[in-house]
Amino acid sequence: MWVYHTGKMYTDAAIVLYEYQKTRNSSHSREFLKDFSGTVVIDGYQVYHTLENERKDLKSAGCWNHARHRFSNIVKVLGKEKSKSNLAYDALKQIAAIYKIEGSLSELPPEERQMRKNLQMKSIFEAFLSW
């Protein structure tokens, strides 16, 4: 099952599309995305990275919720007190800062939201990636 959907900010034309295929072969997403150019937010499945390498007009971006979930699982296993000195706890705090900024911009028009995200989040992203 392949699932494609618009971002949560696109409320005027929200779409969720379920496409059944017998396999998870890259040919299915390649066909579906053949006329799309831009950025796709992905769950980390390698097929999307393959498509990104094949095309200059397609970029993939990791889903923060998928990343957060992995760190959250570590914190749950350790317990909150033990995890406060753990890298997973630090990662969750950094991701929470990203979510906070994202939430504060949610009511803005798309162009302004993107401009402010670029200004406000760039240093946070860079710090997270270099961390």
Automatic annotation (TrEMBL):
Domain Transposase IS66 central span(s) in chain numbering: 1-131
Family matches, as Pfam families: DDE_Tnp_IS66
Domain of life: Bacteria
Record InterPro entries: Transposase-related, Transposase_IS66_central
Protein name: Transposase
Taxonomic lineage: Bacteria, Bacillati, Bacillota, Clostridia, Eubacteriales
